[in-house]
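Exercise: predict the fold of this chain.
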Amino acid sequence: MNASVQPLRIFIVEDHPDTLECLCMYLEQLGHRVASATSVQAALSALVDTPCDLLLSDIGLPDGNGWDLLQYLTPAPAFTVAMSGFGVNADPSRSREAGFRYHLIKPFHPEELDTILAEVQASRTGG
């Protein structure tokens, strides 16, 4: 990460252990601060005390879904990304309707996430 770029605070909601570990490792290697939860309820509890610049949430969670999670968050983070491994055609539009800014189909390429990270960084610096 460029020394002049501030690390982002990123919160990940993902119940698949390998996916969560890979995302956390990738984002931490880029210099970001990462917190996570594996369910809707755990995310809601953690996000009360853990403000974030970017929320990445899986759609399918053990106690609900990412769409519902976003509805419970008031206010929701400005940058939100839904992630889905199902690849259902209606998912991206449903994610937008729920308030997510982006929808990524897993597995996605790191470059897709990098583009979103760059946009979040630019919004923080007014760029």
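Check your answer against the key: The chain has a mean pLDDT of 92.
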